[in-house]
Amino acid sequence: MFFKIQKAPKGNLAYLIDQTTQLDETDLDKSEKAYIAQQLKNEAKMCSINRYTHQIYILFIDTKGAEWLIAEKMRKQGAALCGSLNQLKATEVHISNLSTQKRAAYFLAEGLSLANYQFLKYKSNAKKIAHSLNDIFFTNQSITVKELNELQTIVAAVCKARDLINEPLQYLTAEQLGKDIQALGKEGGFKVQVLGKAKIEQMKMGGIMAVNSGSILPPTFSIMEHRPQKFINKAPIVLVGKGIVYDTGGLSLKPTPNSMDRMKSDMSGAAVVAGIMYAVGMLDLPLHIIGLVPATENRPGENAYVPGDVITMYDGTTVEVLNTDAEGRLVLADALHYAKKYRPELVFDFATLTGAAANAFGDVAMCTMGTANEHTKQKIQSSGFAQFEKVIELPLWDEYGQMIKSDIADLKNIGGPTGGAITAGKFLEHFTDYPWMHFDIAGVSHHISGKDYRPTGGVAMGIRMMVDFLMNYGK
């Protein structure tokens, strides 16, 4: 998608208004204005005029509700506009904001461009079914150059992450994920180091090695770093993403269908972290940020770890494995311990960790928990609402920690039949000694059917929220 400011709009036009008097600022004639005014009285939110050579769209902004709700309505209008333009095989649209909402054009274009995303790599008729829309232009008063760059970057970051999530295992092995992250680093301007199996074994990352033991393919551990010449944080912010490129459940095999068929998306946390790092690098944010991605697939073959095994983690903690399908927390735990070497200011992890989180909140919100201070949690909540990537905080009470105590080891990798999302969080907490927040994105990472500007397949929820948080960090 190409974005550009253009002084004199031409071709397909989209006017944003929130008052009918603003129709006088358009080039509509008297009869067209009367038609549009009548449509708006009938509570239409998008009207179009066919000029034969081009379409003119009038989008009426509903200004009822909180700012974040108004912004989301505009994104959804953008998604609706995207559908109309592609149906007409339009290649471009020119957006003119005449409303009193300063960022209306930004939000409309955000929804429009995210809705325009397609993953067609494996489609034999890709050229035929590809969306026609490619260019979005803005009038001078509709967007600033800074906003334009921000929009272009964030949309690209989300789409690149979606591509990773949508790739099947036959392409996206742990090694290939490392290579793709290196490519993102080269484009985004951040450093990437990928550790292979020999180094992971040498470091005695017991969680990653145990999960990988059932596979003939090696694991990787990707380390990303954005370190500008000047940065405002005293110690690094570390992002950790679960990189299980495919999850069969191991010997605790998942039932199928409807459970294993979407498990290529179990590396969504890794994709989110890579997308955030790409946006941070492209925007050159004044922050020192580290990204960590432990990656493998979870298979039941070879010398697979079994329920009842006791494994020794990277930090020396012993863990009784009672369910090999609770593997994400094992690889994340090693990465969270590795993060201690940076003496971080703040750590965030993103993971498709539990069915309990998905069952509780569906595809509406991420659940979060952690030890970060209230100021950080409030900022995350604010960014979540601002980007409509909402988060719900769960407690980390000691009672949940008791549920993962083992009779024969320090911990066990599952709790009881209840509180699954929180006991997973308590397991991760054990491996931290810094301010930390965990995001369980199991319910929001992958959609069975599209919804507005969130497509079928990989969604990459969390990137826009986190970039918003980082852009406002320290303010």
Label this structure with key terms.
475 residues; nine-stranded mixed β-sheet; elongated; Leucine Aminopeptidase, subunit E, domain 1; 20% strand; single chain; six-stranded mixed β-sheet; Aminopeptidase; alpha/beta; 20 strands
In short:
The chain has 475 residues and is of the alpha/beta class. 36% of the residues lie in helices and 20% in strands. It has two domains: 2-143, Leucine Aminopeptidase, subunit E, domain 1, CATH 3.40.220; 167-471, Aminopeptidase (3-Layer(aba) Sandwich), CATH 3.40.630.
What does this structure look like?
- There is one protein chain.
- The protein is α/β, with parallel strands linked by helices and 475 residues long.
- It folds into two domains: 2-143, 3-Layer(aba) Sandwich (Leucine Aminopeptidase, subunit E, domain 1); 167-471, Zn peptidases (Aminopeptidase, 3-Layer(aba) Sandwich), CATH 3.40.630.10.
- It is built from 15 helices and 20 strands.
- The chain has helices at residues 30-41, 67-87, 104-115, 126-129, 145-166, 174-188, 197-202, 206-212, 268-283, 328-338, 355-361, 374-386, 398-402, 420-429, 463-471, and strands at 2-5, 13-17, 46-50, 55-60, 92-97, 135-138, 191-195, 220-226, 237-241, 243-247, 289-298, 310-312, 318-320, 346-351, 366-370, 391-393, 411-412, 436-440, 446-447, 457-458.
- β15 (366-370), α12 and β16 form a beta-alpha-beta unit.
- α6 runs parallel beside α9.
- The protein is elongated.
- The model has no long low-confidence stretch (mean pLDDT 96).
